[in-house]
């Protein structure tokens, strides 16, 4: 049976923090792969600044050189708001020989009681909660917890830096920085 980590998010844009989380969880949990799953329209956030195809293209660039990373486009192909329960139900049916590990930040752990069909979702996936500055991982749900290097990098900060014409070098992989410049994203 394969063990696959799912790292969902808007990835607007993907940054070094996302890659560190995926890499650390992949190795610590002995996963076969980590699938980056961009949302089309996240249920808990406003819509993304970059369009879906740009966000997928940036993810494809950052995952291309790591054979353990893959881009999973189930949610962007579905269009509209996606809920984790619906997505994971579909993925389980499509990949019955796979155990899924859903990777979330400590901020999302606090919101688990509000997730759609959380009790059924807990039977479908193993949650892996990673630390995040300003949050603690306290939950009455069975969650594997992990410490990962804390990075004070966020997609919002990166977009703000681009708008202010500040450098984003080393905050995002070079391939993402080039893509943002070539496509004039976040200006």
From TrEMBL:
Catalyzed reactions per annotation: nicotinate beta-D-ribonucleotide + ATP + H(+) = deamido-NAD(+) + diphosphate
Transmembrane segments: none
Residue stretches making up the Cytidyltransferase-like domain: 6-161
UniProt-listed Pfam families: CTP_transf_like
MF terms (GO), sorted A to Z: nicotinate-nucleotide adenylyltransferase activity
InterPro entries, alphabetized: Cyt_trans-like (IPR004821), NadD/NMNAT (IPR005248), Rossmann-like_a/b/a_fold (IPR014729)
Database matches in CDD domains: NMNAT
Record-linked Gene3D superfamilies: HUPs
Protein's pathway: Cofactor biosynthesis; NAD(+) biosynthesis; deamido-NAD(+) from nicotinate D-ribonucleotide: step 1/1
Enzyme Commission number(s) from the entry: 2.7.7.18
Keywords assigned by UniProt, alphabetized: ATP-binding, NAD, Nucleotide-binding, Nucleotidyltransferase, Pyridine nucleotide biosynthesis, Transferase
Leading EC class: transferase
Functional description taken from the UniProt entry: Catalyzes the reversible adenylation of nicotinate mononucleotide (NaMN) to nicotinic acid adenine dinucleotide (NaAD).
Protein family membership: Belongs to the NadD family.
Protein name per UniProt: Probable nicotinate-nucleotide adenylyltransferase
Lineage summary: Bacteria, Bacillati, Bacillota, Bacilli, Bacillales
Gene behind the chain: nadD
């Amino acid at each position: 049976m394969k063990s696959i980590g799912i790292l969902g998010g808007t990835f607007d844009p993907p940054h070094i923090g996302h890659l560190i989380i995926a890499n650390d969880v992949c190795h610590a949990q002995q996963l076969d792969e980590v699938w980056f799953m961009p949302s089309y329209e996240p249920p808990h956030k406003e819509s993304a600044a970059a369009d879906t195809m740009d966000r997928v293209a940036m993810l494809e660039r950052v995952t291309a050189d790591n054979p353990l990373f893959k881009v999973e486009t189930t949610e962007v192909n579905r269009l509209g708001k996606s809920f984790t329960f619906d997505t994971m139900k579909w993925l389980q049916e499509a990949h019955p020989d796979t155990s899924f590990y859903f990777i979330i930040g400590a901020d999302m752990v606090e919101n688990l009681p509000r997730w759609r069909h959380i009790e059924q979702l807990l039977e479908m996936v193993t949650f892996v909660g990673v630390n995040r500055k300003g949050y603690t991982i306290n939950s009455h749900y069975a969650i594997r917890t992990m410490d990962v290097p804390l990075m004070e990098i966020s997609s919002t900060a990166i977009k703000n830096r681009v708008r202010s014409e500040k450098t984003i070098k080393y905050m995002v992989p070079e391939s993402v920085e080039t893509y943002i410049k070539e496509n004039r994203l976040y200006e």
